[in-house]
Design a protein that fits this description.
Length: 377
Amino acid sequence: MVITTFPAILDRALRGDDISPSEGVVLLKQRDPEAIAAIHNTADQIRHMQAGDTITYVINRNINFTNICEQHCSFCAFRRDDGDDGAYWLDWTQILEKATDGVQRGATEICMQGGLNPQAKINGKSLPYYLKLVSTIKQEFPHIHLHAFSPQEVQFIARVDGLNYADVIAALRDAGVGSMPGTAAEVLDDEVRRVLCPEKINTATWLEIVSTAHQLGLHTTSTMLSGHIETVEQQIGHLEKLRSLQQTAIKNGYPAKITEFILLPFVGQEAPKPLRRRVGRDQPILEDALLLGAVARIFLGNWIPNHQPSWVKLGLSGAMSALVSGCNDIGGTLMEEHITTMAGAVGGTCMEVETLQTAIASLGRPCQQRDTLYQPV
């Protein structure tokens, strides 16, 4: 197969064609500053065509309900064993206090994820505990959108209780979960996962659970944890799997699909030492994250039009750079973020709406509050 020249790839993308995985690899391997600038510029033009010029944001509140976790992912500085210094597990009163705080501050979304705590059960079962997490919030605030429980958490509940994935997802949906975070994806390549997160679900299981959610009417997001041990070929392989997953949902007329893509650059400052030594740096390389984000827009944008950087990981100025190289959404206010912050991220744990709006205004583009599913608020 003849690999198209670099300018021809960008021309084809600007005409609205999907680029191939091999063409995506060509883009990611560019090192010439002029070529990289052309990729950023192309991604920004494509963003304009696919998502317009308005930069969106959501007012949301994070609740990480426990950091006690049975798994030992090599990048994770958040997890603790029960009894460790810093281990915590919120009770129902604390969950409700945090939800109330979010609502009082204008949140339309509660984003809720946590460690895989083997003790998190009611009457010896895992699913009733998770359903109570949902009902504790939804009984008090029926109109709040609950964006909750990753594919890994779905698999954990199913394994502990001997259920299939569809039963778990349907029960969570019926209890009031509105959408599923596409986290725990890390890199959708089992070679990478064997090093990064050997106890986590494999690639096929992640894809199966997300596709099942789409079939059951639960929208999901999609993510990639980048900039650690993965190759550019594995990065493009990840994007190809996401694109194929979205094409399947659209082609089959599923009632839900992927709403957004979020690039999550690896923060290694507080990561366990073996991976930190292997990666060799504490903070993301902004240039690498911006190039990958731009290529993700070019590769995915026909199918997943909303792209978001992580201000927690890149800082607000880094996220602003991403908004002129392919991204159209700045994400959420979060209000309290533990997982990335405990890894040593410098972006902070909370962003005031006014701060986001001021930053967006500095780019000379309009801003718009949205809900979780990208409807204007």
